[in-house]
Amino acid sequence: MRNAVSGVGLAPDAAMVTFPIPMFLPGSDLSSLQARKREFYDGLTRWKSEFAQAAGSAKLIAVEGATYEDALVKANSLLLANLWGDGLPLWPATKSRVDWILRGSALPRTHVLGKFPPRGGITTLETCAIALAMAGGRPEYLPVLTAAVEACLEAEGFDQLQATSGGPFPAVIVNGPIAKQIRLNSGFGLLGPDPQRPAGASIGRALRLLQQNVGGALPGVGTMAIFGAMRYTNAVFAEDEDGLPPGWLPHATHRHGFAPGTNSVSVVFASGVTNVRRRGAKKESPEEDALNGMWRMADFMRTPNLAALAGWEKGTPGIMMLPPIVARRMAELGWTQDSIREFLWENSRIPMDQMRRAGAPAWIEIDANPVTRASLSLDPWPICQKPDNIVLLVAGGGHPTHSYWLQAHAPSVPGRVIRTPETFEQLLAEANRDLH
Amino acid sequence: MVKLEFHDPSGALEVTVPHAPRLASLAGKRIGFVSNEQWQAYRMLPMLKEMLEQDFPGVTVLPINTFPQGNALIGTEETAALVRKSRVDAVIVGNAA
């Protein structure tokens, strides 16, 4: 539980008495509470913070080796020893590399984006550039990373999302021409890895490093994420706007009201990913194929995902991704974005007797939001307040067999416009030179 | 030798709110609990209350439900105001896991 209080301006340590987890389970033996009562008393009378405030911006650390390779190994070992790595090789964020990355910023390096919870590390453009340098990024990725960080920092309950045992990870949806310009994937294998479109991996890994190193979300210490899926790179990808059927709106326009063609990010905290085999297996008609697939998607969504309660009113229960060829065929059959969302919402409702069987009503009763608590009167119970809560994307490879459901733990879905520097075209030209 | 110099990636911390000064003694003091009602708090905190009352003469330990309970309520400004208004000398917050 380290850092639990520093995000609100206190020193990162605090007077805490900690016990092994079995003590917190139903029916547990509480005798050690008596044996260790002195620690509680000391916490109120004798405890002192051991935190010494450090001034200034990111300090420089040096290692030496007989060769460059030797120094690189030592740097990576030091990063791990200081709990700043993720287990994969890192680029040390040298001054020249960070300066290079900062060419992608429209703002000065000292510009403060906010405090990264729960630890409360001050997050500047330079902090982002350091993380992106470590993650193998490039300058043209920095505007997307910066916007994603801003969106995370304004996400409702971000401190809890960082620390919770459910381990949600940010899924960053990018709209606008910048996606293609910086080689962000919207097609086959868009959740990565993809050497042809490497931007998502670097941006997502940098975001994860910020979550851990600046936000303090160290597994088992600052984040209680029991399983911690998708935490090497998060999920950073683009919607396939070229694949949208005529008349369909880009996600950022539907959800955030951004004009089509606006470079933007939209962040959904997801807690799991599920492939849905959507296509029929025999001689289905086009209409049957579409409808069967819709039912299969709704069936996957029809679960009491209690983490999604946090977003029942304003957030989302998850992201449903349709490959472009499926979206096009469904549009030809008369399906619209609204009718798809309506179908999925209506047919993912859960009978209240099933909710009761799973003990779900108790979680709804203690929810902070009175609107969510009032939903207990609905039977069958809808997994979110309205169809528009469901994020529907056109993305993925040009293949009809599957759709993809990312269930959410998303109290809100923040969106941000991406700002690029005046020199962005030059950066893209340099990327073309380097990556072709 | 090759020297490799790189940035500390952890970001600066800024302490704007000092931790409350500790009490000289708990004897004769007024102690409150702020409970999220999770992780067996409903069993542990009453035990703590009893121990404090046994161990410190003149201590006043407020009932566990004096302040709003539950994760949705304990972090609110309203709860903080109620705690201040109660004139407690110290608060124990629990439980987290």
Please characterize this protein's 3D structure.
Helix content of chain A is 36%, strand content 14%. Chain A starts with 30 loop residues before the first helix and ends with a helix. Chain A has one domain. The radius of gyration of chain A is 23 Å and the shape is globular. With 436 residues, chain A is an alpha+beta fold. In chain A, strands 4, 5, 6, 7, 8, 9 and 10 form a 7-stranded mixed sheet that branches. A two-stranded antiparallel sheet of chain A has the order 2-3. Chain B is of the alpha/beta class and 97 residues long. Chain B has a domain at 30-94. Chain B is 29% helix and 20% strand. Chain B is built from 3 helices and 4 strands, in the order ββαβααβ. In chain B, strands 3-2-4 form a 3-stranded parallel sheet, with helices on one face. In chain B, α1 links the parallel β2 (30-35) and β3. The radius of gyration of chain B is 19 Å and the shape is elongated. The mean pLDDT of chain B is 92.
List low-pLDDT spans of chain B.
none
Number of helices of chain A: 17
The assembly state of the depicted protein chains is: heterodimer
Largest inter-chain interface? A-B, 80 and 44 residues
By helix and strand content of chain B, what is the structural category?
alpha/beta
- What series of H and E elements makes up the topology of chain A? HHEHHEEHHHEHHEHEHEHHHHHEEEH
Overall average pLDDT of chain A = 95
The span between the termini of chain B is 47 Å
Written as H for each helix and E for each strand, in order along the chain, the element string of chain B is EEHEHHE
Strand order of the largest sheet of chain B: 3-2-4
Backbone shape of chain B: elongated
Per DSSP E runs of 2 or more residues, the count of β-strands of chain A stands at 10
Biggest beta sheet summary of chain B: 3 strands, parallel
How many runs of DSSP E, i.e. beta strands of chain B?
Answer: 4
Number of domains of chain A: 1
Structure annotation, total helices of chain B: 3
Q: Tell me the fraction of residues in β-strands of chain B, as a range.
A: 15-25%
